[in-house]
Design a protein that fits this description.
Helix content of chain C: under 10%
Radius of gyration of chain A: 25 Å
Structural class of chain A: alpha+beta
Order of helices and strands of chain C: EEEEEEEEHEEEEEEEE
Strand order of the largest sheet of chain C: 1-2-3-4-5-6-7-8
Oligomer: heterotetramer
CATH topology of one domain in chain A: D-amino Acid Aminotransferase, Chain A, domain 1
Number of helices of chain A: 18
Strand content of chain A: 15-25%
Helix content of chain A: 25-40%
Shape of chain A: globular
Structural class of chain C: mainly beta
Strand content of chain C: over 45%
Radius of gyration of chain C: 21 Å
Chain lengths: 502, 502, 169, 169
Amino acid sequence: MIKKVLVANRGEIAVRVMRSCREMDIRSVAVFSEADRKSMHVRYADEAYCIGPPPSVESYLNIDKIIAVAKRAGVDAIHPGYGFLSENATFSERCQNEGIIFIGPSPYSIATMGDKLTARKTMITSGIPVIPGTSEVIQNTQDARRIARELGLPVMIKASAGGGGKGMRLVHYEADLMAAVRAARSEAKAAFGDDTIYIEKYINNPHHIEFQILADSLGNAIHLFERECSIQRRHQKVVEETPSPLMNPRIREEMGHHAVAAAKAVNYQGAGTIEFIVDDDLNYYFLEMNTRLQVEHPITEQVVSVDLVKEQIKIAVGEPLSLKQEELRQNGHAIECRICAEDPDNNFMPSPGLILHMTEPLGLGIRHDGYVYEGYEIPHYYDPLISKLIVWGTDRDEAIRRMRRALLAYKITGIKTTIKFLERIMENADFKNGKYTTHFIEDHKNELLETERCDLQCEDVAIITAFIDYLTKLKKVSLSPPAVSSFTKWKDFGRKKGIQRI
Amino acid sequence: MIKKVLVANRGEIAVRVMRSCREMDIRSVAVFSEADRKSMHVRYADEAYCIGPPPSVESYLNIDKIIAVAKRAGVDAIHPGYGFLSENATFSERCQNEGIIFIGPSPYSIATMGDKLTARKTMITSGIPVIPGTSEVIQNTQDARRIARELGLPVMIKASAGGGGKGMRLVHYEADLMAAVRAARSEAKAAFGDDTIYIEKYINNPHHIEFQILADSLGNAIHLFERECSIQRRHQKVVEETPSPLMNPRIREEMGHHAVAAAKAVNYQGAGTIEFIVDDDLNYYFLEMNTRLQVEHPITEQVVSVDLVKEQIKIAVGEPLSLKQEELRQNGHAIECRICAEDPDNNFMPSPGLILHMTEPLGLGIRHDGYVYEGYEIPHYYDPLISKLIVWGTDRDEAIRRMRRALLAYKITGIKTTIKFLERIMENADFKNGKYTTHFIEDHKNELLETERCDLQCEDVAIITAFIDYLTKLKKVSLSPPAVSSFTKWKDFGRKKGIQRI
Amino acid sequence: MPYEVNLGKRSATVELIYQEGNQIKIAVDDKIYELDLVMVEEGIYSILLNNRSYNLELIRNGVGRKYTVNTYLRSYDVEIVDAETKYLRSREKSQFGEAGNRIFSPMPGKVVSIPVKVGFRVKPGQTLIIVSAMKMESEFKAKKDGVVKDILVKEGATVDGNQTLILLE
Amino acid sequence: MPYEVNLGKRSATVELIYQEGNQIKIAVDDKIYELDLVMVEEGIYSILLNNRSYNLELIRNGVGRKYTVNTYLRSYDVEIVDAETKYLRSREKSQFGEAGNRIFSPMPGKVVSIPVKVGFRVKPGQTLIIVSAMKMESEFKAKKDGVVKDILVKEGATVDGNQTLILLE
């Protein structure tokens, strides 16, 4: 059995993994950069080790340092979370060689799925539908032109080593093709050190739907149904829900079968996600596999009643899957909103900084996976995700209403967040009707970014409150004698803690 | 339809009711005493009205004032929560007369179930098992002696108007009988203005198991399974769970049928609870009916996937029940711990006061129904319940482990709470094995109240931390020049908000 | 004494008429309000106005008497214009010249590159400095014609939010 | 300079050897600790000692240098004994006489009844005052023989936690 786990991550996912460890009586070891001494994962862990300066390459991406801590702390296993080293085949292999259990798939699975063109070819061999396009590297411009004509425009040029939208170009007109191929190549070279590209047909009105899978070391694999992730901004998911409003039972079963087949095609072990592009007619195509836990895994946990981190750990120690496909059901509806430290009114500019005050929504159907706290200063070195608000409801309508009331009660001051923006998504008629594609945010930009005005009375209340605050402070200053014992003031502060009647 | 609801309550239940109202697009109106201006229900409501001085009799129990606010605010309905006026037949009737929907049962149902002896007789007529004993008022001492002999000692003397353990006496020896009758009578007279008493056989090793029921205005009634509430201290529930570890499917079905029959016997409408006393052999007896929402209703919501407040509101407007008995299932296991402002190390002395700091547990399977916040001063006028921590797990073992990790992460400073005491219940072997009766806390008092010592290193860390805090404050005092602009200091305070590196 | 209070671009005249505990009577322009106002947490106010419950968050900002006030629907910049504000405004102007001459990033981050040098003539829209934060790069541009007077940071440096990075003239 | 620090009934000698940022070297009695200690929230400390992560809550209590320190397992009273503490102790003693002469309720509440009068002789265990809070009544009793010197509150009055209610002598 595993007695101690090193969590090679930070932020909400590190804390989330440690929570499940604690429920399993497994001790958790945190690693942290110099920017993260006060981060919640350091406070929550049983042990914590500093692994270097703030930039990720010098800390959270530094395999040698993490392995050194793992050995020093005597851990049995490493959980990589998502991001950072989670899809790094070298890291998975290094753990293997050092005799440390890597809570995730084999280097082979990671590497095969990590190279998009290899993954594509593997899927074709296994009979899983892929987007019409090349399964070969584009060698020259003649190839590109011929293939684009065969597929019919528009087409998508993609980098084989790609991810996150880099090295990707959408081409509508043949005249633009050559320039797009060159641009994609040079961007891929710069981003991944590899200029291999390929061409796929562009799917109109695309929906991004993914299937959660679990596979054990004995060859058993199941899927835990879909997650609808089409609400995206710049290829980053913003809102996810399950079940998908687009889905029907027949297609769900079929896609589930294909997802399991995809995992088996790479001898997958652990928790993973098969991403599909689906069109309005429910034709679906393999997009890629994420060989790790997803950010949005909690919505699956809510409707399927499972703790995916516990399942990962049980699979990692060689236990057979305890869940049976035929016993799994989707119960109710779950939605996740990603709360980010970004300013929607200012082109989503990042907004790191000090959290002055925070009120979290509570009550029935609310789950909150976060890591920040009042007084915490969000560093500018890492990504802007500060928490995930997850709601569960008996049906989609209740879940949306619950999310709206939760977002309304969720207050974070000191930094800018995407909370209001998410509220407007929940109030959008197309979203409420479940009629949306990956273009949703772009198509509704104006409504989603519109700032409502308060009425005059509400504005006046804002003026009055600021004014009274100002007067109160002013009065305090003039009243407080300069010679008052500082110890008394401190005591008063301790007692009243900033609370005062006006 | 209902557009506006007055919530005639305070604390966590007022906020909980308003949350469901918000999800139904119903505006909520708070009433508050002068001690509750800063209470969360005032902040959370759409409207708020002060109804008088802090003592409950002058505010939350004052029917005239509450009705006056209801009319002024133009509400369609009143939700009474639990406690206060929730089981007051006069209030239910007054609402009826004023044309305001009372979200709860009829005056008749409340009155019939409120008088224990009448309730007992009604149950007997309806074929529901009651504890062997009298169904008549005890008129004289001869009666009492005769009945005690018939039943066999020990017996329980109870007040018909009773509740909360008042006017109750357990009698083991016949010699004590007369004194006990007199004492019960005078206590009942003092507490309820009614000295009617009756006698029941005392059930050994009693388990307190209750069934949640829902009944609509069209005569449909269902039960939503049981809640195990045997973990009590002085007749007050401390921990509740569902399913009960004692239960089996056959008895569950039988008790469920009886619970529904009990509700129908008084033409019940709304959400209610039938409490049973169960012995080790699963013989069960009707104890009483609570004609309102229970404190512990969330555990039922978690395993049955239902929002009981929404069901109450739908029933109140005359909708038929949408839930069908045959479709209801218990999914997983839920536990609730009541967090109270009490000092377990000091005989559970109440501990009102200012909340200096609070960290709430989050993540998978955690629900939190509370109302206090950092900087809130818990008034001493009302009951000590400050929040309910509810966990859900796939099975009882996971739920207990989850509750333990949640309690461990739950921090409230400034006041004393029962958190550590609840942690020890979760770690108790008998509790873990599901082997407990209502005597659990009394029987395990010593272990549950034991204070573990830290090891020496942990003690030293406590010393060091206090000492460094002291030195830091000292240094600050001597460094801070007395003439520094107060505005600058205020700005610094605002910016750093008490956060400092040492 | 009436004060000038600005909310966004609106300027209002505000005068406190009466205050006793939470109870406040106050004039905003030609309207008179009676309300129950109390700070419930640091910077969080609960207001009852004609029994409507409002919750406002106040963030006190840097120099002067500036607030960000978050209402139910949106966020406002509010400024109380007192003698010190007027003094600070004139000082700020004498220090940095006209608005727009001071180039800064609203958030902390790392300077990725500075494609201008001291003495360069710049045009509106021209990128002056690129700052990276949270894995995203933001470009800060000139708002008008000018000359780079001073560059106060180096490439690779970590900078605070609101720190002056470049001065134009 | 070494200090005397009390934890419950234990008295320890503490001396700070070195402090640089979070890094602290300190002697407690005959042990020397090197630790990384930082206040993360008001009154909440995160401590790393040999890479073990400790979280402590500190509550500063009333007069003097007294703390309640909550550790993982239990709560401790800690007091730093400095000159002011010694002075306060002597003052407290001169004001109230011996410990046990001052009768108070640890929590706020309402005085239900006072079954004694000034001048009454009282015995250990005798109830002096009953205070109600949160629907529960608590009796406060004499700890030793004495005479009621002063009664500072009336029946029905609302009292603060730690407020002196009755003085014995």
